[in-house]
Each structure stands twice: as structure tokens, then as C-alpha cells.
Amino acid sequence: MDQILSQDEIDDLLSSVQGSDPGEGKKGGGGKGQGNTKRSLALQANVGPHDFKHPDRITKDIMRALRTIHEGFARIMGTFLSSTMRSLVEINLLSMDQVTYAEYKISLPELSCIYVVGSTSYNGSMIVELSPQFVLYIVDRLLGGTGEKLSEPREITMIEQSVIARTIDRFVESLNDVWDMVQPMKLRMETFESNPQFVQIAPASESIALIFFEIRVMNFSFPLNICIPYFLLEPVLPFLTQGSRMSLATRPPTSDSKRKVIHKLHCSPMTLRSLLGNTSLSMAQYLQLKPGDVLPLNINEHADLPLEVGGQIKFLGRPGTVGIHKAFRISKEVSQIEDPIHNDTNARLFGGNA
To answer: In whole angstroms, what is the distance from residue 111 CA to residue 38 CA?
Structure first.
């Protein structure tokens, strides 16, 4: 309940602000005036300056929730990039900050890779900012390069943008995956821009959440930043409360989430490989090999051959042809009981006489 000040208390407060002795304000009120003055000084001690240019509109609780969400994004993208570039890729969330959009825009280098990602659920966009060197590094690896040397930063060509388009789509898909666990944002790729001056997703004074990542691959390190305006976060603030974040880890899977997982599994590529057999040679025999030599394998000619699925032996069968293509006819499934360890199956199939 609000406290109403008496006239004496008001006079004492005014006297203390003007630097005069509050006891002089009213005769015989020295004791009461001193008490009121101490209280007013205590109130002044609790008052801090407010920066109207940089208001803390995004609270610490919201920043912690954003950290949890984007740490999940970093794990998903690290796994995807590792498989795409055939090398271990680590993405670490370094820090988070709250600044104005004008300050963020000034900090952008003249040559950037800025991807504007819009939300169809809410009226707004965010920015995914990549280093041009990292984009060129991905292009090099996707086209068969070794990635042992970095290219000089330069503007990304239209062809290179097309090469990396699937990777950028995966960035957006990963953001959708982590936000779906809180509140679906329905993000989609909007535009690409290399000049920061042409990007305007928010007013200059708008507060933004700026999330800094580090991408580590081989001996190189690249920055990755995500910029989210406050007005895009505002509709989902009720879902970023402490209770929502605590329930995030224990939330039971829904039928929709199960359907999405099954769909992703069905779309996952699998490598199948048929093994003809193996044999052992001495170094002297190996050095004497020439075209036309015949190598006897440690497997019977009538025995079924193993078929590997994702590096694990899952089926047995016989090779053949279908039209002009090589083929493999499955005759038996290798159960987990039969094949508890991959190496044991190899030993049975290739280690001795069948």
C-alpha cells in the first residue's frame, strides 16, 4: 500500500535536498526531523542512475533462457557441420550481450555474410552473421578441398551462395528445432547481404539480444553471431520464464515431436556396403602384385556375403546384377543376438573356413 507523506516529512525532504538543516524547518521538530532526514538519505542511497539510451529491457532470466536455447542450437549445428565437412567441428556459445541495434550495426565489418531470417509466426526478423572466411571454407570442403588453408576474405559470389545454400537452410532449420521446444517461431531464410549498411531489421534505438559463438574446425576459429531484436522476443517472453525453462527438459514428447523425429530419421542417408572378403599377404607378396594376379579370399564361394549398413553388418546375401547395375540380394538378417560385436561377425565370416 502506498505511504502518504505528511507536510512535515515533505518539508524535511526538501530541506535535505537543498542542503539545509532539516531541524531548522520547524521549531521543536528536531528529533522527528532527524529521523525523517535519515530515512530520506537512505532512500537516496537506494536510487541508482537510469540509462535511458540503454534500457535493460531483456532481463537476466530471459538471457539465461536464450542461452539454454542456443546452446542446443550449437550442439545440433556442430553435429551437422562435422558430417558435412568430414571433420570435427565444435560450436561454443561464448557470451551474450544486450545492446542497441545501432551499436551492433556499427560493429559489423564492411565485408560480412549477413543472413536475414524472418519469422512467419511473429512480425520480425533476426540476423545470422557468419565470417566470409568460414563461408569460403565450407565451400572449399563441399567441393572436395582439404581445408588446410584459409582464403582471403572477399565478397561471396552467386555460385558460392548456391553451393552453401543447403548449409544455411540447415542453420535456419536448427533454429526452428530449438525454438519449437519453447514456442514455434516458424523461421525462414529471407535475404543475404554482404554490406551491413543495407540491412535494417529494427529501429536504431531498439534493444537486441546479441549471442556470440565460436566455430572451431581443425586449427581454425571463426565467429558466428545471432542478433535478435526485442520486439521479436516480446511475444514469446511468457514462454521464456523460469517455469517454462525448467519444464523444457522434462516435457514429455508429443505426437507432433515424434512425427518430426521419425520424418528426420526416414530422410537420413544410409551407406550400404557389400564385403567380398579379405586375405593376408606378406610385404614381399604385396610388392610383387601386378595386374592379372588372383587373390584367394578367406570365404567359401557358396557362402553368403555380409552387407554393412552404416558401418554395421546387418544382412547376409549374394551379389548379382539387375539390368546394367550391380545388385545385392538379401537372404538373411543378422540379429543383435547373433552379432553382439561387429568384429566377432567379421571373424566368423572372414577369419576361417566357411
So the answer is: 58
